[in-house]
Write a structure and sequence with these properties.
Layout lengths: L3 E4 L4 E4 L8 E5 L10 H20 L3 E5 L6 H10 L3 H18 L15 H13 L3 E4 L2 E4 L15 H6 L15 E6 L14 E3 L3 H11 L3 E7 L3 H16 L9 E7 L2 E3 L2 E2 L10 H7 L2 H9 L7 E2 L2 H20 L14 H11 L4 H12 L7 H18 L13 H16 L3 H13 L2 E6 L2 E6 L2
Parallel strand pairs: 3-4, 3-9, 9-10, 11-13
Antiparallel strand pairs: 1-2, 5-6, 6-7, 7-8, 11-12, 14-15
Helix pairs in contact: 2-3, 4-6, 4-7, 6-7, 9-10, 11-12, 11-13, 14-15
This protein binds one RNA strand through helix 1, helix 5, helix 7, strand 12 and helix 10.
RNA sequence: GGUGCGGUGGCGGAGAGGCUACGCACCGGCCUGCAAAGCCGUGUACACCGGUUCGAAUCCGGUCCGCACCUCCA
């Protein structure tokens, strides 16, 4: 079965053919850790996590690297504001980030390199760029000369002239061209800094990804991921640096073969921004919704489409999840071992839709379609559907077997349910309804079925 | 101004020349002490204007509208 992915560099849906089928290599630009993660960070993490999960269905070995940016001006500003060392801030929020992402069933990347632990690699790459005459030193800054790279603009489809037209920035005195960007900048005494051939300073934003992807994956690697907004300037600059460090004017493909960009999460149709104050933090959402509900909401639209984040989307996902789990659990499962998932037509159809550029809405519709009318289907199909659903939910990261919350006392619930059933037999329906109401208050929903009363924890 | 993405039924959201997904909501029915779930059934679509075609939501041209990027951003 072929895997298709949309490649932003060629702007086409392409068949994914790894450089080395024995070792697929992916890099994703990770978070800058100075605050809680927002839902947009989560979308990128969930989508790339799914991409990796899907690739693992076909390829035995997939190496996934996603960095942590732990040195940056935003970090410096925030640590100064809080009067704490920057390291304390970044340690705190990288831990929080990983914890939150794991609540969303995002697997930790195989390697999660930190910028501050790769300063040497960055310095070496900058030296190489200077040697290749693609970078220059001016006023204690090391700058990349965008005019030195003839493929500059290939990814974002804009020429140097075009981007300067709309540019709202003045040309700083340390730049030769308006588009030139910082590789290394000086740090003031009280600011974090590292010794370098150009004095005590710190790296620019883009160089870390070039240095770390080279170190952890080697170039060229297969897929480079990130949010669409990173296309320009971040990814464009990464290409320029990484390729120029290999050899001046080497092709963008010498860095990464495919480029994978996820769309934005919007709020009321607009991008989240701190100034507007419409940031949705994962942390806050997790107080009200389960990680799976949030994850499903993020996967309910195709990854390249904009996703408008509303309360409705969460409520709907919550319902959908509940329905899927309930229906799934109603099927009496024999033994999955007796069935070959690779020959399960329900599962194959599901997998095909994910292999087609991660079409999650279609994949989800297939789960729903299979589960529909499942009670009327024959025993063999029921088993197959149960098996397919189990595998599908696992792949999507939506399966949770700790649905029954440990904070609740199962025996108490059972006791109340028994009491209610006694009341029902005695036709004391007032008492029966009262018990149901009480359970509802504890977020326990009950259903009377032919097999008896079953209960579900709502979250 | 430049670059890109998009406008699908009440809502969410796939599809991409003929088979008109899927979910939620609505409506009718079965079932039920009542619920819920389930089952059976019904309805409402492809921004607009032209063109190509036997046939267009899907292709081509134009128009309008929305969003993003060009400044830190997932």
């Amino acid at each position: 079965m072929r895997i298709l992915i949309f490649d932003s560099l060629s702007r086409k849906k392409q068949e994914f053919i790894p450089i080395d089928a024995n070792k697929v290599r992916i890099y994703a630009c990770g978070p800058t850790v100075y605050d809680y993660a927002h839902i947009g960070n989560a979308r990128m993490a969930v989508v790339t996590d799914l991409l990796v999960r899907v690739l693992k269905k076909k390829y035995k070995k997939v190496l996934f690297v996603s960095n942590i940016t732990d040195i940056d001006d935003k970090i410096i500003n925030e640590s100064e504001k809080l009067k704490i060392p920057f390291k304390e801030l970044t340690d705190k929020f990288s831990k929080i980030y990983n914890k939150e992402m794991s609540s969303l069933n995002v697997n930790t990347p195989d390697i999660q390199p930190k910028a501050t632990e790769h300063i040497d690699e960055m310095i070496l790459m900058i030296e190489k760029l200077i040697k290749n005459k693609c970078a220059y030193v001016m006023n204690n800054h090391v700058m990349f000369n965008v005019k030195s790279y003839k493929h500059y603009g290939t990814l974002s489809r804009r020429t140097l002239e075009e981007q300067l037209e709309g540019s709202r920035i003045e040309i700083a005195d340390y730049k030769k061209n308006a588009g030139d960007f910082i590789l290394w900048k000086p740090s003031k005494d009280q600011q974090p800094g590292w010794n370098s051939p150009w004095g005590r300073g710190r790296p620019g934003w883009h160089i870390e990804c070039s240095a770390m992807s080279k170190k952890c994956l080697d170039t060229p690697f297969d897929i480079h991921c990130g949010g669409v907004d990173l296309t320009f300037p971040h990814h464009e600059n990464e290409i320029a640096q990484s390729c120029s460090a290999i050899e001046p004017n080497s092709e963008p493909e010498h860095f990464s073969k495919y480029w994978f960009h996820n769309g934005f999460v919007t709020l009321n149709g607009e991008k989240m921004s701190k100034s507007v104050g419409n940031i949705q933090l994962v942390n806050d959402l997790l107080n009200k919704y389960s990680g799976e509900t949030i994850r499903l909401s993020l996967l309910s639209a195709h990854y390249r489409q904009p996703l408008n984040w509303t309360k409705d989307i969460l409520e709907q996902s919550k319902k959908t999840l509940l329905r899927i789990h309930k229906n799934y659990e109603k099927i009496k499962v024999n033994d999955f071992e007796a069935f070959d998932i690779k020959k399960n037509e329900f599962y194959i159809e599901f997998l095909e839709s994910l292999f087609d550029d991660l079409n999650t809405p279609r994949a989800l519709s297939i789960i729903g379609k299979n589960l529909n009318h499942v009670t009327t289907k024959n025993q063999e199909d029921k088993q197959k559907i149960a098996h397919a659903t189990f595998e599908a939910l696992n792949l999507l990261g939506l399966y949770s077997n700790n649905k029954r919350n440990i904070h609740f006392d199962d025996s108490l619930i059972e006791k109340l349910i028994n009491e209610r059933n006694v009341a029902r037999k005695l036709k004391n329906f007032a008492r029966a309804d009262e018990i149901r109401q009480n359970l509802k208050k504890k977020n326990i929903e009950i259903e009377d079925t032919k097999e008896g009363t079953v209960w579900t924890k709502l979250k």
